[in-house]
Amino acid sequence: MAGNNIAPVAAEVAAKKLAKVYAIDSPQLERYTPDAFAAGLKQLITAKHPKLVLLPHTYQVRDFAPKLATQLDRCVISDCTGYKHDAGKLLFTRQMFQGKFSADVSFGSDAPWIATFQNGAFRGDKAEAGSATAPVEASQ
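and the corresponding structure tokens:
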């Protein structure tokens, strides 16, 4: 997650059964700009080397995700409604042609992979309570 003064939100997220929560907390992210958010996330992704970056499909993410992917020389699978593993491959389900049908798509490049998920793709009330196995790792 990224923003300014986001420690309370990061703590709330860390109260779920997760491996790790990363928080980019910076005054430069108080006001939204696609350049600042892409730069902050690029810095985190470059430092931590995640295989998969999942983002909510919000207006802001729709704005900066292509910029982030371009800076990392990657692509984005956007607007996903689900995912599955098939024969050892991670597939993302997304609607095509204004919802006329759904397709399972995958990445053809090396990680990191970036995907956005539609609101409602996962139910928040189904998130397992618990705590992240590591404390929130904050960066600036």
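(Above: one complete record from the training split.) The CA atoms of residues 86 and 97 lie 24 Å apart.
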